[in-house]
């Protein structure tokens, strides 16, 4: 919703100010300039990025429009899931959770949290380290180091779409200049046509510069920043899991272990202590 509101504000303020200043909106409609700038931007984006990054960018942009799943409700479900697993392991032994982590789809614990089940990478992260705990006697600091390495790799993967979009935002003003230069080249052929024809042609060329800068700094650049924020909230889920698992391996009770995880969450989306406690009990 904020993405749409921001885009509307950008369009309304820029075009509204232009009209109030006496500008003619029809002059800004230059389909060929849009084709040059937009087509070159898409082409350079495809050249610069591997196929998986191209797919991830489109998927990430769709998630921006539909809303990120990594909100307070998601984090509470994540902590409740970890509590249930830790509690079962503490009461029935580590071997009791083997079936749950080997087949989370058929697990009574995991199946109660469909939002977590949809996050395949995070689900694999959880089950992999629970499996390590159940199969070996790894020291907490060794486990924490291994988890931090994987989280760092995941961070690079999650930030790839934002970096790819940001590079296109940086290139758009230059592509706008390309469109403007081509427009001036065309204008050179109208030197004998009179000042009115030349003026319209120069105006069309300058629109290319305007569109490149406007798209780069008004839309594509802010979108890359929004993608960075979305990646940050997903990464916090991994850090939450890491803190909780390391705490339980260190001998903390399930309730205290998920408290370590809760403290790793961003303040604006972190559930309160009693709020989380009530949620865990309700599950």
Automatic annotation (TrEMBL):
<keyword id="KW-0653">Protein transport</keyword>
<dbReference type="Pfam" id="PF20560">
    <property type="entry name" value="MotA_N"/>
</dbReference>
<dbReference type="InterPro" id="IPR046786">
    <property type="entry name" value="MotA_N"/>
</dbReference>
<dbReference type="GO" id="GO:0005886">
    <property type="term" value="C:plasma membrane"/>
</dbReference>
<keyword id="KW-0812">Transmembrane</keyword>
<feature type="domain" description="Motility protein A N-terminal">
    <location>
        <begin position="4"/>
        <end position="93"/>
    </location>
</feature>
<comment type="similarity">
    <text>Belongs to the exbB/tolQ family.</text>
</comment>
<protein>
    <submittedName>
        <fullName>Chemotaxis protein MotA</fullName>
    </submittedName>
</protein>
<dbReference type="InterPro" id="IPR002898">
    <property type="entry name" value="MotA_ExbB_proton_chnl"/>
</dbReference>
<dbReference type="GO" id="GO:0071978">
    <property type="term" value="P:bacterial-type flagellum-dependent swarming motility"/>
</dbReference>
<feature type="transmembrane region" description="Helical">
    <location>
        <begin position="26"/>
        <end position="48"/>
    </location>
</feature>
<keyword id="KW-0472">Membrane</keyword>
<dbReference type="InterPro" id="IPR022522">
    <property type="entry name" value="Flagellar_motor_stator_MotA"/>
</dbReference>
<feature type="domain" description="MotA/TolQ/ExbB proton channel">
    <location>
        <begin position="136"/>
        <end position="223"/>
    </location>
</feature>
<dbReference type="Pfam" id="PF01618">
    <property type="entry name" value="MotA_ExbB"/>
</dbReference>
<keyword id="KW-0813">Transport</keyword>
<feature type="transmembrane region" description="Helical">
    <location>
        <begin position="198"/>
        <end position="220"/>
    </location>
</feature>
<keyword id="KW-1003">Cell membrane</keyword>
<keyword id="KW-1133">Transmembrane helix</keyword>
<feature type="transmembrane region" description="Helical">
    <location>
        <begin position="171"/>
        <end position="192"/>
    </location>
</feature>
<keyword id="KW-0283">Flagellar rotation</keyword>
<dbReference type="GO" id="GO:0015031">
    <property type="term" value="P:protein transport"/>
</dbReference>
<dbReference type="GO" id="GO:0006935">
    <property type="term" value="P:chemotaxis"/>
</dbReference>
<dbReference type="InterPro" id="IPR047055">
    <property type="entry name" value="MotA-like"/>
</dbReference>
């Amino acid at each position: 919703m904020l993405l749409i509101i921001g885009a509307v504000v950008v369009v309304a303020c820029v075009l509204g100010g232009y009209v109030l200043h006496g500008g003619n909106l029809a002059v800004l409609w230059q389909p060929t300039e849009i084709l040059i700038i937009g087509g070159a931007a898409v082409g350079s984006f495809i050249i610069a990025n591997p196929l998986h990054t191209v797919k991830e960018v489109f998927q990430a942009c769709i998630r921006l429009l539909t809303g990120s799943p990594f909100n307070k409700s998601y984090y509470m479900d994540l902590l409740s899931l970890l509590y249930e697993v830790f509690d079962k392991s503490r009461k029935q032994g580590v071997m009791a959770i083997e079936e749950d982590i080997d087949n989370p789809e058929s697990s009574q614990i995991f199946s109660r949290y469909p939002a977590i089940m949809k996050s395949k990478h995070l689900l694999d992260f959880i089950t992999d380290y629970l499996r390590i705990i159940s199969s070996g006697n790894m020291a907490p600091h060794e486990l924490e180091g291994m988890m931090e390495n994987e989280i760092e790799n995941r961070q690079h993967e999650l930030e790839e779409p934002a970096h790819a979009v940001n590079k296109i935002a940086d290139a758009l003003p230059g592509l706008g200049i390309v469109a403007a230069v081509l427009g001036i080249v065309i204008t050179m052929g109208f030197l004998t046509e009179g000042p009115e024809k030349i003026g319209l042609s120069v105006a069309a060329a300058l629109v290319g510069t305007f569109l490149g800068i406007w798209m780069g700094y008004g839309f594509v650049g802010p979108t890359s920043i929004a993608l960075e924020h979305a990646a940050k909230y997903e990464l916090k889920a991994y850090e939450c899991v890491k803190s909780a698992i390391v705490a339980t391996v260190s001998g903390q009770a399930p309730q205290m272990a998920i408290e370590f995880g809760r403290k790793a969450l961003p303040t604006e989306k972190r559930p309160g202590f009693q709020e989380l406690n009530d949620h865990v009990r309700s599950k």
